[in-house]
Design brief:
308 residues; alpha+beta; BirA Bifunctional Protein, domain 2; 2 domains; seven-stranded mixed beta sheet; 11 helices; 40% helix; aa-tRNA-synth_II/BPL/LPL; ligase activity; ligase
């Protein structure tokens, strides 16, 4: 598929979702409202995930879509993905600055020069607020930790592809412990995730992947990530069979976050971490793509999975 054909397919699917009132356009590529039907599919899918993982004893944490700026800086995200980061700025001036702001607005000119960075940054991935919280608790118990997190996330990559939103939600299970513990967890969820999505009747494949590291040095990081099989993705064709969309990811971070926040295992070693992430909007889009826009007409086997 050529780039033009791919763009046309993405635009056509986006327009169909809008025409069926599943997505609500907001005037910026990648920014949408969601209908009640769309949200119901997501809620049903989250319940399905909980039926598979809810008996594992995970601690549930829910975070807002913003994190402490210092924690964000410490995470190393800006070193690897500066092109995706979203900072939050605000007006912090005096009366004179306010008057200048009003005059700039009246002239239809750029008013953002007077904004200054706040102490919060948009969350880039649902698990990022978790690690400093765990570090503050002290050493992990002998069996490590398992946490269920869910959050809106932001990545600055405007696109006409409805599966590449700027604000989207991630549901994650995060495992923290020894290398053996977290690797066993990741394999468990590769198997579970494949079973969940297979039961929902969508075509899929699981493949080695890499994150979109920035710049020339990023190419080496991406190659290293693939060579060490640190990341797998469950791919589903949404707007292209040649370039399917990553809907689930299975990530082994090694001891990166353990080092950053000094998270320690019971024996004093640096903790390793792994996570499984569900891109819930992408999963809903995949279901609409392969089963149609009318959820009442979806195959009964699929409806039995979600509406039970």
């Amino acid at each position: 598929m050529t780039a033009d054909a791919l763009s046309a397919a993405q635009a056509a699917f986006r327009d169909a979702l809008i025409a069926h009132r599943l997505l609500i356009p907001m005037g910026v590529d990648g920014l949408y409202g969601r209908s009640g039907v769309f949200e119901d599919v997501i809620e049903r899918f989250n319940l399905l995930v909980s039926r598979h993982g809810g008996n594992d004893g995970a601690e549930v944490m829910r975070f807002p879509p913003a994190i402490n700026r210092r924690d964000f800086e410490d995470s190393g995200y800006l070193k690897s993905f500066p092109q995706l980061a979203g900072t939050i700025h605000s007006f912090m001036g005096n009366d004179r600055d306010h008057q200048a702001l009003i005059e700039t607005l009246l002239k239809k000119e750029d008013w953002t020069a007077g904004q200054k960075a706040t102490q919060v940054v948009m969350t880039p991935a649902a698990c990022y607020p978790l690690y400093p919280v765990l570090a503050a608790r002290g050493k992990l118990p002998a069996d490590g930790a398992l946490v269920d997190v869910y959050s809106y996330c932001f990545r600055h990559e405007p696109s006409i592809d409805p599966a590449r939103m700027q604000l989207f939600r991630q549901r994650e299970y995060v495992r923290i412990g020894t290398a053996d513990q977290v690797m066993a967890f990741r394999q468990l969820w590769v198997d579970r995730g494949t079973a969940i999505m297979s039961a929902l009747g969508v075509p899929l494949e699981v493949d080695v992947a890499n994150d979109p590291f920035f710049g020339r040095a990023g190419k080496m990081l991406a190659a290293n990530q693939r060579d060490q099989t640190l990341k797998f993705e469950l791919l589903i064709p949404i707007t292209s069979r040649e370039k399917p969309t990553a809907c689930l990811s299975f990530n082994y971070h090694q001891d990166h976050f353990g080092h950053v926040w000094d998270i320690r295992t019971q024996d004093g070693g640096t903790a390793h971490t792994a996570c499984v992430g569900f891109g819930v909007e992408r999963i809903a889009l995949a279901l609409f793509k392969h089963h149609g826009f009318d959820v009442k007409a979806w195959p009964q086997a699929v409806r039995d999975q979600l509406w039970t």
